[in-house]
Design goal:
single chain; 228 residues; alpha/beta; Rossmann fold; 6-stranded mixed beta sheet; 4-stranded antiparallel beta sheet; 7 helices; 10 strands; 27% strand; globular; binds adenosine-5'-triphosphate; ABC_transporter-like_CS; ATP binding; ABC_transpr_LolD-like; P-loop_NTPase; Putative ABC transport system ATP-binding protein
Length: 228
């Protein structure tokens, strides 16, 4: 599935006790675009990713992916949408130390329908290979480096062939060389597979490689720039 346009309109995300965490007047992201999100710490960048994933409390406005209007869908429908269309790469990886790379990347076999298991396993393996992860099954990821773990986390996000990848600080805590290689590989992979990538980051090397960069400040999307 590769054709989900994102349309956000008059969005207001609120947190506990009704505090406004984020407002976005309007944002359209075309299928296959790569978008960086930047801004100071605490500005609302992760909140934006959660809202796009249907994981935030949308108090007002719309978040629409193709025909799926997340703000009017119930929790179960949003979870189904994520399972079919969204791959998430979180800041702290959320991998299982005691499992090997393939088992981590194919972890969705634990909750997806059995008819999807073979394809998922195959994609998990081939994506790990494309991302140059060695030792797919020979050892648990407990002994993997930060860069290798992030690659496994990316392969996991891609394993169910989602149209959209949402990544939170994918290069955080990696040294420059490893981070640059990861950016190259991630961008090559999403472009090759025509996925939409939306990545929160403080890393200007990452932003330089995106089609567009969105600026969030003080709980508000304040503008965007396009890379040529
Ligand atoms: N559910 C919530 N209820 C109340 N406040 C929240 C909630 N979730 C996040 N916040 C607050 O909203 C603000 C924005 O948080 P967010 O994690 O989106 O920032 P960020 O821009 O991603 O920051 P960083 O770059 O430091 O990760 C922070 O002040 C955070 O403490």
């Amino acid at each position: 599935m590769n054709s989900l346009e994102l349309s956000v309109q008059d969005l207001l995300v609120s947190g506990e006790r009704g505090r406004t965490l984020l407002t976005v007047e309007q944002l359209v992201v075309h299928p296959g675009e790569t978008v960086g999100i930047r801004g100071p710490s605490g500005a609302g960048k992760s909140t934006m990713l959660y809202a796009l994933a249907g994981l935030a409390n949308v108090a007002q406005g719309q978040v629409r992916w193709g025909d799926a209007e997340l703000s009017t869908m119930g929790e179960e429908a949003r979870a189904r949408f994520r399972r079919s269309s969204v791959g998430m790469v979180f800041q702290d990886f959320l991998l299982f130390e005691e499992l090997d790379a393939v088992s981590n990347a194919a972890i969705a076999t634990g909750y997806l329908h059995g008819s999807r298991h073979a394809a998922l396993l195959e994609r998990a393996q081939s994506t790990l290979q494309k991302l140059n992860v060695k030792d797919l099954t020979q050892r648990t990821i407990a002994s993997f480096s930060g860069g290798e773990r992030q690659r496994v986390a990316i392969a996991r996000a891609l394993a169910h062939d989602p149209a959209v990848i949402l990544a939170d600080e994918p290069t955080a805590s990696l040294d420059r060389k490893v981070a640059d290689q990861l950016i190259d590989d991630l961008v090559a992979l999403v472009r090759q597979e025509k996925k939409t990538l939306i990545a929160v980051s403080h890393d200007h090397h990452l932003h330089e490689r995106m089609d567009r960069i969105i600026d969030i400040e003080d709980g508000r999307m304040v503008g965007e720039v396009r890379n040529d």
